[in-house]
């Protein structure tokens, strides 16, 4: 009888935990995925803040400051690409939810490859612009750069979530830029 009571209590605890999780997940999903979408202005403001944080955190010398503008420009070009894509996804979602108008899988693959090529070009531009500056950074600046840019790479689940929020990709659908 005692074993049945323990098993019953365990089952009840698991069921209660599942119900609470489902309610929290629903609240989280509604709150973060549906009702609090970032506008293009919000995305731009977040990007401005992150760029400014990296710049301020590096504490560049006068000589290094001369190398910063091309880096910032290249980063802003990538941000613009990402914001424009988010706007396109929003417009497409608002225009029609009709499944019949969705492109076929081959077209989606080609479109994704095109988007990836554009992103790759923008990333190469950042790398080319950042290389001269990076070569002048001391060890402390390099360490701070790694910490300050963690949001952009080596991000884990939280960074991917934040990046998708900034891009306006709520469902991780075919337009999500991840594998």
Structure description:
It contains seven helices and no strands. With 179 residues, the chain is mostly helical. α2 packs antiparallel against α4 and α4 runs antiparallel to α5 (105-136). The longest helix has 34 residues, at 2-35.
Query: Span from first to last CA?
Result: 51 Å
Number of helices: 7
Order of helices and strands: HHHHHHH
Helix content: over 70%
Beta-sheet strand percentage? under 5%
Secondary-structure-derived class: mainly alpha
Number of strands: 0
What are the low-pLDDT stretches, counting only 5+ consecutive residues below 50?
Answer: 16-27, 152-157, 172-179
For the residues shown, what is the average pLDDT?
76
Rg for CA atoms = 22 Å
Features:
7 helices, 0% strand, 179 residues, disordered C terminus, mainly alpha, single chain, extended
Layout of secondary structure:
Layout: H1 2-35, H2 40-58, H3 62-65, H4 68-95, H5 105-136, H6 139-148, H7 156-167
Helix pairs in contact: 2-4, 2-6, 4-5
What would you say about this model in short?
This protein has 179 residues and is mainly α. Helices cover 78% and strands 0% of the residues.
């Amino acid at each position: 009888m005692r074993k049945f009571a323990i098993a019953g209590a365990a089952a009840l605890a698991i069921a209660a935990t599942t119900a609470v999780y489902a309610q929290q997940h629903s609240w989280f999903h509604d709150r973060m995925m549906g009702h609090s979408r970032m506008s293009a202005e919000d995305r731009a403001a977040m990007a401005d803040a992150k760029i400014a944080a990296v710049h301020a955190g590096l504490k560049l010398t006068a000589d290094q400051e001369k190398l910063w503008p091309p880096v910032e420009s290249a980063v802003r070009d990538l941000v613009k690409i990402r914001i424009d894509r988010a706007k396109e996804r929003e417009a497409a979602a608002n225009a029609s939810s009709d499944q019949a108008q969705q492109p076929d899988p081959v077209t989606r693959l080609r479109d994704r490859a095109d988007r990836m090529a554009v992103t790759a070009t923008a990333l190469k531009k950042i790398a080319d612009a950042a290389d001269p500056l990076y070569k002048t950074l001391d060890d402390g600046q390099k360490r701070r750069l790694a910490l300050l840019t963690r949001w952009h790479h080596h991000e884990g689940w939280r960074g991917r979530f934040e990046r998708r929020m900034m891009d306006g990709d709520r469902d991780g659908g075919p337009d999500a830029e991840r594998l």
